[in-house]
Amino acid sequence: MATIYEVSKAAGVSLATVSRVINGNARVSERTKEKVHKAMAELGYKPNAIAQSLASNRSNSVGLLVSELHGSFFGDMMSSIESMLRDAGKHVVITAGHSEAEKEKQAIEFLISRRCDALILNAEAVSEEYLKSLLDNNIEIILINRNIESLQERCIVLDNQLGGYLATKAAIEQGHRNIAYISGPHFKEDAQQRLAGHKQALEEAGISFDSSLCFEGGYHESEGQDGFNALFKQNNTFTALICANDEMASGAMTAAREHGLSIPNELSIIGFDNVLFARYLYPKLTTVDNPIAKMGEMAANWVLSNIYNTKTSTPINHLFKPELIIRDSLGALHAD
Amino acid sequence: MATIYEVSKAAGVSLATVSRVINGNARVSERTKEKVHKAMAELGYKPNAIAQSLASNRSNSVGLLVSELHGSFFGDMMSSIESMLRDAGKHVVITAGHSEAEKEKQAIEFLISRRCDALILNAEAVSEEYLKSLLDNNIEIILINRNIESLQERCIVLDNQLGGYLATKAAIEQGHRNIAYISGPHFKEDAQQRLAGHKQALEEAGISFDSSLCFEGGYHESEGQDGFNALFKQNNTFTALICANDEMASGAMTAAREHGLSIPNELSIIGFDNVLFARYLYPKLTTVDNPIAKMGEMAANWVLSNIYNTKTSTPINHLFKPELIIRDSLGALHAD
DNA sequence: ACTATAAATGTAAGCGCTTACATAATTAAA
DNA sequence: TTTAATTATGTAAGCGCTTACATTTATAGT
Distance of CA B185 to CAs B61, B125, B171, Å? Predict the structure, then answer.
């Protein structure tokens, strides 16, 4: 693999000049520019990004930490961030934290060790202190889906409570009073907030929260099934079931059907996130839209304008509002 | 950020010694080892991976190219590769190629410029020559889902034709004779092969292939819908529909239902891939299992044993056989 | 105690770039 | 022309590590 030195020799100029034409950040006469380009082409020269990073202390890459590499939600997030950044000529280094503090730290440290210019973090398990310590060490971070009071301007979050509220309220407006809830894992902020929204809507309607109608899942399909089964066994009077994400909603739907319930006639189900497959479920899932792709873009924008100064600073929206998407899985309560 | 130099000063030893304790690849006395560890801890020292790579010409990271960052299929693939490699202390740098030759090249070159020790490629658009040229330049690559005659030992593929064959044969065995097919994009190898398998099964049963029963989609849900609609309008005599992946199958199911067809009574549908959500569709999707996670692990294993010599070489399986997963969306043809 | 060996540590030359600074070439002004 | 101001190019010192080689120190054998 050819080095800059070989190029400089072939072009009959100095290292510095070659570097200048590579980076285009200093004036070089047209004539030598051509010579250098020719030499690079002939040698098939590709700059060694590692050496560039070491010398310049910039890597043109941004780190992205997600909880998982699979799943519609994270997929959309990675996708939107990557395409926006790539369009700007930046590269994304993705790692997974698996919602475990230790693994998240490891992943973040990997990104730092690779000298990413900025980190976009969907960090769920790591402590607030740790995140702040990163800033103290001059690591540029922006958080998606996590709200830290003192780091407001670096947080991009969804109003999860509002989302939970909207879902439950929609059920109430259809006449439901016995409403079950399958929550995400309580250690996750978003799960807590969505549940809080649920309770808020219940309270507003004068319905008291019944913990036997609430199941804690882990955001996976199978836990939607488990959740339904557990709830149904324990207290099968509910006519609506709110799930903290679409995956669990689809699992719950499947389980409900196995119990012979027809949706939405006998049981209404509402999801959360509005992932792509929600509209391909049967019945089509009524859910709360989570504009994760937009949030990802916003984070990418933030990096572009704050780190690379490459964007006529788009005003950054730090708090996104979810919307209810009405489809077929929520029905009016029949007075039977 | 502390450097190795500061550590060496704090510990009262030379740079080289610090480097030795970091890498653990040369003998250092217990006493100095301790001194160095203490100094590192006190300074909060983290090796600069960039500098390490430059000096050692190894990066301990492997590059992964996938077509998209979203979607169940790629999600499973990324996930299995990452977790296996991470367990071995290696890191994965993921990029997306978006099935476009130019973007795939760019992505691969990025990975090379980051000096990844090996590349795991799910390259769909880039030419065979290009891939071979990488090897000529001593880039260690292993291909997933792509079969190149002369690179057999670096290819890990699924027997897609067998998969297509199994799906169609299953329909035939249930008495279906009018079988429609929604294919993936023809420029993709796997799509072609699956279709070939379909044709093979047809031929074996003495059914002639009818191109008006075949629609070319792009592997997305919406194209499953479009496909069904187009086929149905044109020639609605088919009683079974084979789709080249589960996403399109779910789209087709939705569209079929909108036309009032009941599945599987009036129309049987079979998918391909057996992604997680296939079992949460209604009816549960009969499909062909694509062991992508295992294939990913196999690729990771290959890297571990061939590049890092870190694995008691697991025998590498280069050709995976798919299996039919029977669920509810395929039914026997009613003699009505 | 005295070598011969082995073990531990140090020295210094890179790895392939960027960039401040110095120098040379060009252009414009007088 | 000369000189000053610009513009283009070169020189060389790093960036933070690894590693061949040299040197020193410890261990064992006699």
Answer: 32, 12, 22
